[in-house]
Specification:
Layout (H helix, E strand, L loop, with lengths): L5 E5 L6 H8 L14 H13 L3 E8 L2 E9 L16 E8 L9 H14 L6 E4 L6 H9 L3 E7 L4 E8 H11 L1
Parallel strand pairs: 4-5
Antiparallel strand pairs: 1-2, 2-3, 3-4, 5-7, 6-7
């Protein structure tokens, strides 16, 4: 069963801010840590990301409609500086699935798979790095389902995180097992 087509486009911090504001302030986005953000806060945060040389945000589309947010970053310069020893080809990732009134079975798994496909489409990407909150058990299961292997817990300024890695081969192996 196909869930549909996923694509990504560069995020426009001003045009997409209202949509993002609804997503990041939704109770289901608690781990995004923007529950109390105002529209201007969201605009400012994504303008900051847009201006950053090593951090990029994308709007994910499902059959042409906005459905998820994807961020990719270079962990040598963003998020994980000094918290682990990056290897050549490491790419950091965050993703957020839009809240919905009509959930589709398997949708979030399809989104993270599309995100990983997008990241590994760049031949320079050798390994994807994530650092979700240690309490976010749902995302740990999703991550492991696409090949991530937990490494260790780390302390970031805003949270205690589970540092995990996924190589291209681990992703392809997990993806093959899921077919």
């Amino acid at each position: 069963m196909s869930i549909g087509t996923f694509t990504v486009r560069a995020l426009d911090p001003l045009k997409d801010a209202e949509l993002l504001h609804r997503w990041v302030t939704d109770p289901k986005a608690a781990f995004w840590m923007m529950q109390d953000a105002r529209l201007q806060d969201v605009e400012r945060e994504y303008m900051r990301i847009a201006a950053h040389e090593h951090h990029h945000a994308y709007l994910g589309l499902h059959d042409g409609e906005p459905a998820f947010l994807m961020e990719k970053y270079d962990p040598r310069y963003v998020e994980l500086v000094g918290l682990y020893d990056p290897e050549p080809g490491d790419v950091g990732m965050h993703f957020l699935v839009a809240p919905t009134d009509r959930p589709i079975s398997g949708f979030t798994r399809a989104v993270i798979t599309a995100v990983m496909d997008e990241l590994f489409a760049d031949p320079r990407t050798r390994r994807v790095v994530v650092e979700p909150d240690v309490g976010n058990k749902a995302v740990h299961a999703l991550n492991e389902g696409v090949g991530f292997v937990p490494d260790r817990e780390i302390d970031k300024p805003e949270k205690r995180a589970l540092l995990s890695f996924c190589t291209r081969d681990q992703f392809l192996s997990a993806r093959g097992a899921a077919v």
